[in-house]
Amino acid sequence: MISNDIVDKIKDVMRGANVLESKEERLCYSYDATRQEFLPDLVVRPASTYEISEILKIATANSIPVYIRGAATGLTGGCVPIKGGIVISLTRMNRIIEIDEKNLIAVVEPGVITYDLHREVEKKGLFYPPDPASFQICTIGGNIAENAGGLRGLKYGVTRDYCLGLEAVLATGEIINTGSRTLKCVTGFDLTSLLIGSEGTLAVITRVFLKLLPLPEKKITVSAYFRNIDDAANTVSEIISSKIIPVTLEFMDNDTIRCIEQYLKNIYPEGTDTILLIELDGKAEVIEREIEQVRKTCEKCGAFFCAVARDDKERAILWKARSSISPALYQIAPKKINEDICVPRSVIPEILRRIKKIGEKYKLPIPCFGHAGDGNLHVNIMLDPAVYNIKEAEKAVNEIFENTLELHGTITGEHGIGNTKIKYLEMEVGHDSIRIMKEIKKTFDPAGILNQGKMFE
Predict the structure, then answer these.
(1) Which of 126, 295, 343, 431 is a plausible cystine mate for 212, CB 3.0–4.6 Å?
(2) What is the pLDDT, as a whole number, of residue 265?
């Protein structure tokens, strides 16, 4: 527990407001999307960099663990306060400070909801591409902490590709600025990139400088239906090699499709084993030609049916199935395990075959879907709620990761390590890399207060 003297010091910094002490209030900050629960000793809701700096000084001086929280949509336990301590919620720091239309830059605070930024810049004919699945509720700070990707990653990249610079507070209370507002900056070490994806273990992000793009003129979507995964995977390679880069190129395997049918009461064309959802954006006259080429490529590679959507209403119908996957899976298996491996595109069929065998071995359904264009697959181990077969599921996860690394992939494409993947980190990066990471952590956070129990043992 945190002593009353320390709580009083924090209240002085916060001028007596936005310090939450009751158990009922603290419970609201005890969890994330993994459904883990750890009760913090105190919750603080600052509204300025100064307040965060002063709180961290107090925490470091008294060796109190600190956990930074955005919208808590993370899937690896990144913000859960597993050692108690202080939760710093950044939801009050939610200002879009500036949208610079001349230089295509947005300056925002970490609590800005990603969807709100999308809407505001699009009003001005601009575009912020990163779109993680939780974009309607997740925050920019959380996106920075996890280097969030999303469906548009194939064409537009991930959060790191749009972050020009940061203001951040170290555990000691020191305030640093990294990067700049310019598109080019090679002044010293690239601390911006180091902080992106560091999962709250190195510093607290308090301001973000983001690159924007002109808003694409038009979008067209095609949904292609295949009788087997190999034809669908071959189609992905053929589309990319034809020098057409879709904004999204999503796939759903047979198990996922059956779950969606059960959830939405939809019936897909008879014989559907795999679906590709492909979206192009850009100049209208260009993508009209390209979508026809994509459709022909799908049919040449084995698609037995293609549906093309050219307006928002038609597109919404095609995207409804993709957006319903998570609730459909959770309805069947509320305690499912969701992993996010990433492999080279060429080995997608092979890793899916191996995953299917692993599922059969442990008698666990494992629906797979995800971003086929960049090889990022969401692998869902469906736990039976009646028997909660967690031991078999953990063995399955371990074998899936081993096979992913054997095929030159990675154990996490966008969800991060948090506390759920700690034991697998060395499997991919090796002991020496972890040693270097720990040394970097000690430089930024000498007392080790930030996000204790995450990333490393």
Answers:
(1) 126
(2) 84
> What are the residue ranges of CATH 3.30.70.2740 in the chain?
334-429
DSSP structure string for 290-348:
HHHHHHHHHHHTT-SEEEEE-SHHHHHHHHHHHHTHHHHHHHH-TT-EEEEEE--GGGH
Pinpoint the residues of the chain covered by CATH 3.30.465.10.
Answer: 96-214
CATH 3.30.43.10 residue spans of the chain: 4-91
Helices (H) and strands (E) in the chain, counts: 16, 18
Q: State how far the Cα of 425 lies from the Cα of 456, in Å rounded to an integer.
A: 8
The per-residue pLDDT for 334 is 87
CATH class of residue range 4-91: alpha beta
C-alpha 438/C-alpha 455 separation (Å) is 10
Q: Hey, what amino acid is at 51? A: E
User: pTM higher than 0.90, yes or no?
Assistant: yes
Topology classification of domain 218-326 = Alpha-Beta Plaits (3.30.70)
Is 334-429 a domain of CATH 3.30.70.2740? yes
- Tell me how crowded residue 14 is: count the other CB atoms within 10 A of its CB: 17
Write down the pLDDT at residue 294: 97
Q: What pLDDT shows up at residue 11? A: 98
- Residues 374 and 150: their CA atoms lie apart, in Å, by 10
Residue 438 and residue 373 in contact, taking contact as beta carbons nearer than 8 Å: no
Give me the count of residues in the chain: 457
- The single-letter code of the amino acid at 196 is I
* Domain 96-214, architecture per CATH: 2-Layer Sandwich (3.30)
> Cα(397)–Cα(406) distance, rounded to whole angstroms?
14
Name the 3-class secondary structure at 101: coil
Non-local (6+) Cβ contacts of 140 within 8 A are: 108, 109, 110, 111, 112, 113, 114, 117, 208, 210
Integer Cα distance of 322 and 250 in angstroms: 8
Residue with tokens 């808590």: 72
CA–chain centroid gap for 289, Å, is 32
Residue 113, token pair as written in the block:
């909801």
Every domain of the chain with CATH number 3.30.70.2190 lies at: 218-326
* pLDDT < 50 positions in the chain: none
Per the CB < 8 A criterion, the answer to whether 229 and 274 are in contact is yes
